[in-house]
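tokens incoming
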């Protein structure tokens, strides 16, 4: 079940700034689906992605964003899957070269409700396909332009 599908903004705690930072954030809670046959150890799937006009990448702020999301949505961080999505990039004059899309799983250490020490790894093909399926099921213009 889709919980959130919108732009998420957060304050930068390290730098005094009037401008809030923003990213795309989608969140699903699979335990709220009516599937009685599955038990998910980590039922919350959180997908973050840079906005097209982003000044800072979600990768550079991963721990800060995760801390804010967990606090804002009151999520148990031990029950979530944090995934960064990077859409395909076309370049050169005729867009003849493409850097393929990428999904990275991120695991954090947690202390006093704060994320730190993010560790990135490639997402397994099975989970990647499940995430793509969930993205398409949302039928969101915000997400569909990224696929």
């Amino acid at each position: 079940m889709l919980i959130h599908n919108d732009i998420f903004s957060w304050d930068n705690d390290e730098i005094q700034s009037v401008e809030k930072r923003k990213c795309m954030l989608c969140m699903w809670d699979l335990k709220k689906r009516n599937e009685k046959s599955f038990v998910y150890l980590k039922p919350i799937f959180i997908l973050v992605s840079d906005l097209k006009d982003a000044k800072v990448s979600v990768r550079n702020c991963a721990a800060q964003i995760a801390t804010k999301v967990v606090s804002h949505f009151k999520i148990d961080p031990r029950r979530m899957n944090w995934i960064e999505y990077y859409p395909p990039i076309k370049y050169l004059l005729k867009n003849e070269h493409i850097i393929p899309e990428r999904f990275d799983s991120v695991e954090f250490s947690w202390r006093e409700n704060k994320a730190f020490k993010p560790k990135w790894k490639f997402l397994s093909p099975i989970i990647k396909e499940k995430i793509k399926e969930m993205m398409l099921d949302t039928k969101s213009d915000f997400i569909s332009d990224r696929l």
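note: The beta strands are 2-10, 21-29, 44-49, 80-86, 89-91, 97-99, 102-111, 114-122.
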